[in-house]
Design brief:
Layout: E1 18-20, H1 21-45, H2 49-67, H3 74-82, E2 90-92, H4 93-116, H5 122-141, H6 145-148, H7 150-153, H8 179-203, H9 213-219
Antiparallel strand pairs: 1-2
Length: about 220
């Protein structure tokens, strides 16, 4: 039973249970895609059933991760299948567990508000936004925001963080950002702002059907 119900994997060379960050990021990307799609369905169509399915699946997946075993969580299984040919990147399981407990709390709150009570409010909207931000940072940047709070609540230092960010070290030359690069970034932001200011009216014009396919289909 202990082999079934546990958190993290024992890997030779690591003195604590670890997880494969690559499959964790893949799973976060999957959850982000479905949550974002459900949110867009609400914003543009006023369609709520999809978000209820997503919340229920989200909560179920995280309950399996925390209370049974992450290796049996459906999204992590799918993530493992997706990245199975990539070299594993091992990270400490303890901080992941803490981050996912936050996920369970957020998902459970959403489940009660939107599925059980069948309501929507700024509270559920804010929680959904937080979930999207957490998932986006995990999947795109490899930054576990929930893990950042681990050291605040626990005295021991987190071990084996993604990208070795737990270790204090100097950045390598390829990681450093020069002044000219910052100026380019600033110039690009200014460029985007100017586009919005001077071309908003022309950009808002609906494009015409270049090949007339839409009008052709309407005449049938």
């Amino acid at each position: 039973m202990k082999k079934l119900i546990r958190f993290g994997e024992n890997v030779p060379g690591y003195n604590i249970p670890v997880m494969n960050e690559r499959e964790v990021r893949a799973a976060a990307g999957i959850l982000f895609l479905f949550t974002y799609t459900a949110l867009m369905a609400i914003i543009f169509k006023g369609y709520f059933p999809l978000i209820k399915y997503v919340i229920t699946a989200f909560l179920t997946d995280f309950i399996i991760r925390i209370f049974i075993n992450p290796r049996f969580a459906p999204t992590l299984i799918l993530g493992r299948l997706i990245v199975k040919n990539q070299t594993p990147e091992y990270v400490g399981a303890a901080q992941k567990r803490f981050a996912w407990i936050i996920g369970v709390v957020l998902a459970a709150t959403m489940f009660i508000l939107m599925v059980v009570v069948n309501s929507y409010s700024p509270i559920s909207g804010i929680i959904c936004l937080f979930c999207l931000i957490f998932l986006f940072f995990e999947s795109v940047f490899g930054i576990c925001l929930g893990c950042k709070f681990y050291s605040i609540f626990y005295k021991e230092k987190a071990q084996y963080c993604p990208g070795e960010i737990c270790e204090v070290k100097d950045r390598q030359p390829i990681q450093k950002v020069s002044g000219s690069q910052l100026l380019i970034l600033l110039g690009f932001i200014v460029f985007i702002v100017l586009l919005v200011v001077f071309f908003q009216e022309s950009f808002n014009i609906k494009p015409f059907d270049l090949f007339g396919l839409e009008s052709h289909s309407q005449t049938k």
